[in-house]
Amino acid sequence: MNIVYKNDIIAALATPYGRSALAAIRISGKGSAELVNRFLKKPLVTGRLEFNVFDAGEFKENLTAVSFKAPRSYTGEDSVELFAHGNPIICDGIIKALIGGGARLAERGEFTERAFFNGKVDLTACEALADIIDAQTVEQLVYGNKRYDGEMDALNRTENMLNKALSSAEAVIHYSDELEDGEVDNAVINDIYGSLDDIIKTLKNEKDKFGGGRIVNEGFKVALIGVPNAGKSTLLNALTESDRAIVTPIAGTTRDTLEGAYVYKNKKFVVTDTAGITETTDEVEKIGVSRALRAAEIADAVISVEVNGKKTKKIPCERVTIEVENKCDDDKDVGADYEKAVVNGKLRISAKNNVNITALKEKILSLCPKEVGQICNHRQYDCVCRALDACEQAKKESNKQFGLEIVTALLYEAYSAIEQLFGRSADERVLDSVFQRFCVGK
Fold first, then answer.
1. pTM metric for this prediction
2. Minimal CA–CA distance to 161: which of 194, 112, 206, 132?
3. Could you tell me which of 421, 430, 437 has the C-alpha nearest to residue 122?
4. Residue 247's pLDDT is what?
5. Predicted confidence band at 438 (pLDDT cuts at 50, 70, 90)?
6. What confidence score (pLDDT) does residue 379 get?
7. In a 10 Å sphere around its CB, with 0-12 CB exposed, 13-18 middle and 19+ buried, how is residue 186 labelled?
8. What DSSP designation does 242 have?
9. Which of 37, 154, 389, 421 could in theory staple to 383 by disulfide, Cβ–Cβ 3.0 to 4.6 A?
10. Distance (Å, rounded) from C-alpha 291 to C-alpha 303?
């Protein structure tokens, strides 16, 4: 994908490939309507969805079509959308005819890329749109829509404040000779230093809430650790209500990490089953133990699984969040009431009999962050951190004599980081990584 914006005509199937009642074909670029009109029985009327007939050469297709004029379209340029019967032969035939007429097949994410270059959306909105498409829960969908629709605009306001502060700083630096005594100090205090506290507060708040946004999008990560044959794989299957992990009575069946996911009360959870932690001379087992501890390090919560009635050595992990005693096969299920199933600080469960699994899910749910911010991936987090660091340094310099030039340079660093956040200045690799998440027709 080239960072230089292209305005040629592109076409692609915008719905999944296969048989369905309807399929959407999207065409965009200057001259789109003129190209499509060459194949239609009657010319398109801008903004009006009408029945029509498309002559693909080998066959004719009854469909509906609508055209949009720039900039009032998804991409911000002339575009057409065709809604045909969802038969691959029909879709392929229409796209083949369009390509034969001068269009080309769109690249992955190119329609959204054009919307970005035409100022219809910023880069964070593009990422939100990708998250909406990938959403597996209503929570993820709502969060994505809030970001896409601009309902979470704290960082947009921060960008405006930085812009204003920089304008004032540049005015003071370039025109200080023309100002009377005292005017410089007032301008600096009111427009520059006075806004730094608000900017820093907003950036810190977004940085602190990053974990909540990441967890909504990626899922709350839970690692299961314990000695061999403690029933971790059975617990993974119980939590995910699947046969994701192989379960046998043989200790050491699980030699590597294995992930499974489930949705509980509209929130996504990702559970990692791990190899049993034990002292061993077996090289493969050592690798398994190392990966188990690594999974615990990067998890949002760690569940230590012990066996009912058996004393075991303390697991060498300081991040244990929940302790459970498994194989309590004679216990009765207490539903969602976690406290009723806890004895001596440990939750009694039977993964095999599905006893107190709901109570465990409730406990895991209670550990999830309650607040989310505007940022939710590591690219956005990096931009916010760089902007915050620059602003905090600027605040330190604000009390020093002759520090305005340094403060201005630091504010430019912060502003540049926010500009990169929204994609107003971004290199080709960053844009590629964002738009490659989309399918060809989006």
1. 0.85
2. 194
3. 421
4. 60
5. confident
6. 95
7. exposed
8. S
9. 421
10. 15
